[in-house]
Queue: 2 jobs
Job 1
Amino acid sequence: MKARNALVIVLTLLLSAAAYSQGINGDYHSYLELEADMFALQHKFPDIVKVFDIGDSLEKRNLYALKISDNVLVEEDEPEVLFLGGHHAREWISAEVPFLMGQYLAERYATDPAVKRFVDQSEIWIVPLVNPDGLEYSIHGYRLWRKNRRDSGGGDFGVDLNRNYGFKWGIDNLGSSSNPASEVYRGTAPFSEPETRAVRDLFLKKDFQAMISFHSYSQAILYPWSYTAQQPEGLAALKEIAAEMARRMQAVNGRTYEYGQSGDALYLSNGDVTDWAFALSGIPAYTIEITPIDWASGGFFNRQEDIDPIFRENLPAMAYLIDRAIRDYQPLGPAAVDLKRRLFKRN
Amino acid sequence: MAGTGPILKAMNPKRAGIVLCLLAGLAALFPASLSAQLVLGQYQDEAPVGTWNTFPFLGAAALGRGGTSFSLASDASAAASNPALLIGLPKFMFQVNGSYHLAEFFKYGLVNTGVFKSEGNVGLGLAAVDFAGLAFRLAGWSLGLNIGQTELFYRPEASYEESFTGSTYRYVLLYTQKGWLRTLNFSLARRIGPKLSLGFGVNYVVGRLDRKILEQETPVGFTFLDTKAQDFSGYFIQGGLLFEMTEAIRIAAAVKAPYALKAKSASTVRFTYSAPYNTDIGLTSSSEDTAEQPLILGLGVNGRVLSELTLAIEATYFAWSKYLLNSFEERQIREFKDVVRLGAGAEYELRAQIFGVNARIPVRMGFIYDPQPMKDPRSAYACLTLGSGLHWRGLRLDIGALLGRESGSGNRLDVKRFAVALGFGL
């Protein structure tokens, strides 16, 4: 174990040398840069930051989760909140925002009482890059690549990871596609992809009280259901939280984030992580579509200098969700966790 | 989750999942054949056309006899294989070589990797004057100076266009890649005993690789331009020996030292949108990268079994497991294994008289087994070679042809090369 720790430290230092360098993707993170920065954060704040390897991608890249909490090595009876990014390869900004949240919390823990409360009283989990293979292809191959790098044969590649989760997977061909050439190809089965299985397994091991999955673009806050325009149970609460997040976000840069039920406000999609998480646990689960508002304004392209302002804009939404999770937290206990798992198997 | 909807609304609803066509003219060079899984080597941008194993440069004569070039010297290109062979060349020799390559691709760049899709293999034809060499003797030394185009990085161009009758709207997606690597070689050799000769060469390598992706709507809409350029340079040394065991049997060994091929890389990614939006978002970067090239060892033997017939066999070891590539400051994953290429060939010499002067007409044939370095899937080319020539007075004309087919990937990629060498020796 000591040898392994030493290896991790050495790797961390070596990789840190490459961190913050501007590669082909400028200030955005590549997979290796993100890996280096995550371990550098752990190295710098070992008491409150821990990097977990939660699985491997198809091309054998590690999938990392960042846990931020006091007593970070201990599973405490505290609310857990999950932030996901990088499901879609070309949405580079969606990996930056959750990672920067982790960095923000770690760096401000000692000086910012609000941050200290979050870190002390909750367990914040961040998976900034669900689709590392796709991101690398987007950086080195085709910038507008969306899916993972599943070779479906005959020249078709990729499964849309946000159509591969297990709730209402493939319920119709409007919200996803059975065609491997499609940009919204859902895969051959629910959780057919190692990347979605890694997120699923993390989710099932934990007791998340809230979740945001970051995407771009559209400048919108979306809540379940995505697979249908029918209203979910608890719609009022979902809407109220979304409205408050939007209000707080607008106060930062003046940008308006529209909010609404995904399947009603934007378009139908089935097998997405937000529906799956909401169906499984009933928690407030959101998709935030980061700015810009449309394709003509840049679409999947955000200026490098906008990365930090965009993070600052999304920060209040994440903070609000953590705050609510702490305020509303009622421990579920082991029996409820078992119930969750049984529910999952049914789905 | 997001993206598909908005981008399709803004760009074109037919983009998602559409089967894109490759440039028909190039595709027509080869008939469609089987389609299957990826040959990793074809996937990589830095892979040379045809084969990863590009050492040594093969002139027309060596090509015709199964690529055997470590122990047999036919022309000035021998110096690029094994510098010790310089001692067997005439006192003065000049040679120019031209080649026409035909190679098939299935997965490469954006083609059959998720963006463009072809029904079968796609062909590419490339013609070039690819070698010029000089060999001469000076004060007991044999010297050689030559330049060869040792690797080509060209790919079949891929494009897709869409327009509508009665509308000025036009959408285009274009992918191109081109590039080359040239090696300037200076070699010298000396006989150090009655049976043993040694040779040494220094090489300067220079090259360039350009990739471009253009995606555009006109007259109103977006333009996405992605250009990547790399300028290569590097030095390596090589050496060789030739041992004349008997009058009829010669054994040779050659080595190409590992070296770092350096690259100055530049990238620009730019998204613009026409008025009234006037969006303009760019990302430019540059870096200095290296590709650690592998050690290569060659061993060859030839024997004159009849006065007119010479047989040759050789093996070339490529230490591809040591190959490392950094591109734009990132280590790229290349799961390569060491490989041994085998070649065997025969040369039968006919004699004739032309205008009362003796002429030699070599007839050559051979076979090459050329395994590729990718671990998965295992892939190898099997090639038949043929050649002939005319050596009359000091003039030397040689022609050679290679016909090969790949197995292992499922794509049965064909490769062909035709070479002509014209030289003069005294």
Job 2
Amino acid sequence: MNKIYSFWYQILHPDRHSSAFIWFILLGLVIIVVAIVPEFIQINNVSNVLIQMVPLGLVSLGQGLVILGGGIDLSVGSQISLITLIAANTMTDSPVIIILSLFLCLGAGVVFGTLNGLLVHKMNIPPLIVTLCTSFIFQGLAYTLHKTTGGYIPSSFQMSLTISWGLFSIPFLLFLSFIGIEFYLLYRTRFGRYIYALGGNEEVLANAGVSVGKIKVTTYVIAGLMAAITGLYLAARVKSGGALYGVPFTLNSVTAVVVGGTPLSGGVGGLGGTIAGVAIVSMLNNVLNLISFRFNLQSSFYKEILTGLVLVIAMIFYRKRS
Amino acid sequence: MLECKDITKTFPGVTALSHVSIFFNQAEIHALVGENGAGKSTLIKIIAGKYRPDTGEIYLKGKKVQMTDPRKAIEHGISTVFQEYNLLPHLRVLENIILGNEPIGKRGRIDWKKARAICTQLMDNLQINIDLDRYAGDLGAAEAKMVEILKALVSKAEIIIMDEPTAALPEKEVEALFRLIRNLKASGVTVIYISHRLNEIFSIADRVSVLKDGKMVGTFSVNSINQDELIRLMIGREISSTFSYRQNFQENPVILSLRNIEDQRHLKGISFDLHQGEILAIGGMTGNGQREIIRFLFGSHSISKGEVFYEGKKVSIRSPRDALQLGIGFIPDDRRNEGLAVTQSVRKNIALPSIHLRQTIGFIHHREEKEIVEKMVSTLSILVPMVSTPVQNLSGGNQQRVVIAKWLPLKPKVLLFHEPTLGVDVGAKMGIYQLMRQFADEGVAILIVTSDMIELLRIPDRILVFFEGKITGEFFRQNATEEKIMFAASGQKGA
């Protein structure tokens, strides 16, 4: 009876709004890949794939909530770039400064998200336009901090975010814990229900006596926060800041969420699908690297073609479903 | 229980309510009637906190209250069941009912067990039974309304405003809803009930208040007034309850003839003829193929078998384009989605289907368009300040006229009306009926699909009754009675 509110039920949604489908696609993809390149399944590579998932995964967790609520955030990419530069320009070897810089970056993410959310809610401008505009602003700010790449990231900070043991690594565990937090928020609290309601029909939510604005703004704030965490992680991984580091994440996060079964109109779908979407989008990258190495191909074009195809196929399926 | 004193509300250019006073007792069903634009919706929006009155006061249980926003009203125990669908189709019934009132357990979790218990108890009290785990989108119209009422009750509503709750309900489901409303009353809830269906008011309400042109005409006990008097108060004039009709239409040539139309599900061998200058109405319980047949004739529903003859020639109507080329126009039931681009101007809406008649290599002849639109506006007497006014600012009756006006420049020979007066008030209804008759007199064949019994009995020359995709009754107006129609609509042939 209450099983429909259980963990696995909510992750897989085995009834109408099934994200089980996308998990099967993922599984199928893994099987095909292992058949072609057996190296894929080696512990080293699996651990790599999992780590490569992390930045996209973190952004997509935020993006997923925004899209589920009927919005979209096209500024996450330039937010990430800007955060990497803020981190790389403020950090020194002193642990105190590192911590202050961490808070500065997270605070910046909250401010960016709040700005987006308030423009969408108070000014009543379509989210697509708002976040497109703010993405230019954030991108411009990033350029003023540093034209290309640079800055300083202390080794201690880098080390702490790149430790790994076999399959597990700090970044992957970080990702898992954020999945846990988001699961709790989305499926256990009122806030989560209201995001679904917001994406389903804003008017209905308002008529239920709920303050729609708070919910809406909060989704953008969470997206900003996740972008900030992603930026910090990227800065640590590459040991620098860069004005273009975040660029691919804007559209890739939207792709991951949509492949995962949350339509751009919001209201249906959820966390489970998004995770599978992230895995598919970031796996294609790794897989094509392996394949091209093996067959001596130029891979980067194929990756984009394949991503496009997967997206189209997923969309055709979701259309039929509804 | 609730008292509104001397409420006035003006919008730029209009006085929506002027010095209206009204009171509602505890545990009464109080109907609110009036034509569209009489101020009913303004009044309930003020009570529900959506609008603030310019002057006047609201007292709740003797205490003066300020309804500053809908949340405040809900806190005061006033909930609204809107006319429009107000559920989230992708969430379950339980989640919909409890939305906004989720019981919180430890660590901020929603306590679903408790939520379920609350809903189950509510349903038990009201003697209704809806599966809480179904998706709201799968519910029937009546069940959906009940879920919306349950939603109101969960937020501890003592006063529930129902805005045309039966507008989208088939006749047989209305009774189930009425049972629920009576149970609500028995449990002490006050119901403010708005409906255009006056006969409903007499079967459910205790008192009825009439609004006209923003003023309160009066409040009456339903026992002290009858339907004709009520209509008179609402529109301030008598309406002749019968319309002229034509007995000799069969002398006119047949324009459209259907033979054994079948589709996969809804239509099971439909054959009939439509004559020039005739008004033919199709009735029956909703969902027995009426919707499909009228959409088929406009090319938006496909069939698997059967033939159509138009002016004696065999034709196939595969798209609305085909239908229009034959001279068939369609006035759909869902005006706002299928009939009009509501945010666009009256002019653009009227000009759209005939735009190809007034262009040279893609450039539109603007002056000609303006003339034609203005001519349509005056022939159909559409009340609109300017032809550039967006259609959404017009009343239901005027919107319906705009939909009709769209087809006229194409000089249609057949006009299909699906629920021609849905959401149109009493006075404007008469206007639409007169227009239909006028077209018919000019030789246009009119086909109506309607679920409104009065409309079915009083408007057409001939009546067909559908049941499970077949025609189970055909009546000429002079010998049609409600009884015979009901008999045919429930599937008994040979009435």
